[in-house]
Amino acid sequence: xNIAVIGTGYVGLVTGVCxxxxxxxxTCIDIDEKKVEKLNNGKSPIYEEGLEELxxxxxxxERLTFTTDYTRGLAQKQLVYIAVGTPQGDxxxxxxxxxxxxxxxxxxxxENDAVIVTKSTVPVGTNEHIxxxxxxxxxxxxxxxxxxxxxxxxQGSAVHDTFRGxxxxxxxxxxxxxxxxxxxxxxxxxxxxxxxxxxxxxxxYASNAFxxxxxxxxxxxxxxxxxxxxxxxxxAKGMGMxxxxxxxxxxxxxxxxxxxxxxxxxxxxxxxxxVENDMPILENVVDVNERQRSIIVDKLHKRVTDLSNKxxxxxxxxxxxxxxxxxxxxxxxxxxxxxxxxxxxVAYDPVATENAKEVLSNKVHYATSIEKAVQDADxxxxxxxxxxxxxxxxxxxxxxxxxxxxxxxxxxxTLDQVKNSGVEYHSIGRPVIYG
Length: 435
Ligand code: UDX
Hints:
18 helices, seven-stranded mixed sheet, Rossmann fold
């Protein structure tokens, strides 16, 4: 099959590379010349496990190429994927500027009939709008149909998720387009859900909103467990063993961040608002998530009372481990709140420091190791469960800090590990341990 992918951001690049690995001929189009050149030389601008190897392999086998030229990129393509960004607009809804631009570019350069496939997360109804926009601007006498094929990729395991995901969702109101997409995806050997356009668009939002709800739910249970003397680890384990509930996404902590959950939960609320349908559950999911970031600082404040000029070591800044992504990272709010209380904040992250410098207050200092961050600190606060942070021996806190006082926002240690460590340990949804 001949395929074009518009946008070589995170989703577009992974999609293009993986489709070429199935044996399809793929041309990825991007306006960024430097990026295109880099990609044609086999260098990935993002780090994703396994991606660069597949990129090099498929370039070598001449099934994959990158271009800035729409005419060349779209020539003889049966399928054109739109995988451009849909950032959050001012009112919480998805901003479709890049999608609209891609539609106009397709309309100006398409020279044969094609199915336009949307990978980008777009509000329900957008695919119909895409069809209208392209058809209204078509330069050549060609016909198009549209389909939705949402992605469910996690950062850090996107290649794995593409080949080993739980399902592939394809939606179209055109039976032939559905059949074509089914053929394109057959090589992944995953269960395929075929549905109409609007349901496919909705599946993406509903899935992310449900996972976000699971996290806010477990955080609400954790806050209560802490107050009544239960242990959220045991509560989550006991709940998760019920297959109807499932054990994943029940890790209590300081809440979800990243490029998807916060944006998509707000976007679906905004979609509801547009059709006068309120979403009380999701409004509260967002609210609980925002509050969760304050709770850890409030607990710390209650314990230390006066934080002014106290050295607080912040360990982990990215929104989750194994990424340098700072988008909507809880560390942004937490460091802000600590600085408001006049604490001296010294942060450490294995890879996100450069990105963090762009979004955190310039009052934050950065350390080059955990040891340096916690040296002579009054308090340490863990915000991302990096392996390095989980493996940092507890006795090192005791040896290096002024007072071994640790607030763990990601429950990196079991309570048994903390016992007799000499560390006073506050975590999420579990009793305080005076080790
Ligand atoms: C998510 C979805 O998993 C993916 O299907 C979708 O396409 C994009 O959004 P991602 O943002 O990469 O992927 O990260 P994920 O691993 O899902 O974690 C999201 C956030 O939730 C992180 O901040 C993480 O720390 C938090 N989280 C996750 C919890 O707090 N508890 C959990 O149990 C799981």
